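Appendix C reproduces, verbatim, an entry submitted by the partner laboratory led by Prof. M.T., so that reviewers can inspect both the input and the predicted structure.
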Amino acid sequence: MNKLINRFCKYIFLTIVALSFCLLFCNSKDIFAAYKESEVSSGGTIVGTVKLAGDVPEVRMLNVEKDQEACGHGTLPSEALVVSSDNAVKNAVISISGILQGKKYDRSGVNPAIDQKGCVFIPHVIVVPPGSTVDLLNSDDVMHNLHTWSIKNTAFNEGVAGGGKLPKTFEYPETIKITCDVHKWMSAWLIVQSNPYYAITDASGNFKLEGVPAGTYTVQAWQESLGKTTQEVTVSADGETKADFELTKKGKNKRRKKKK
């Protein structure tokens, strides 16, 4: 009897381990319901703006500490938070969370790309579908070293010579920071989005999500320095729904003094 109980417990343990392994490392499309592409008739539209609550912060300047001749400047404005005079937030990412069926991904044309020009990543934020191959370019005359900070997708740390191109494929939904180990001030964000309902706000903080099936959804606004917020919206067939977001600048955490 004890042997049977031990075997049963061992079987349960191995099953739990196997399931845990799959949850961590298997393709999510194989174990969860994947987004399903379909034709959307009478789809609605979500439009709105993203604004910063409070005062407009001063533009933070970054020191270009090396290769100034090639980079073309000694300082440059940080793109970590770009806010207009009327508090509009640029480069915020708007997306619908948890939608399982809707319009098709737009995979037409050439590979999406991030360039390195003037020792700056262009664009600063890019959103791509899962499985996309992104061309990482270097238009400068100096070497750049691309470093991705990712968990689900394979991280890499590779040099790209001037005029070079480094194609990389990103399989899984994830928010990935990209930096250059040679030029420490450089950074960009690559968001692999699980469905095609996403947009990046323009300089006026505006966005638009089109072809949304009628229904109620959770819409998220995310910005690298301000974090994220969500709201629930209801979309009607052929209708336009307004969704404005307000993000708050994070306060600095004060360290508590240790009691002597």
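Residues 2-31 form one domain. Additional entries are available on request from the coordinating office.
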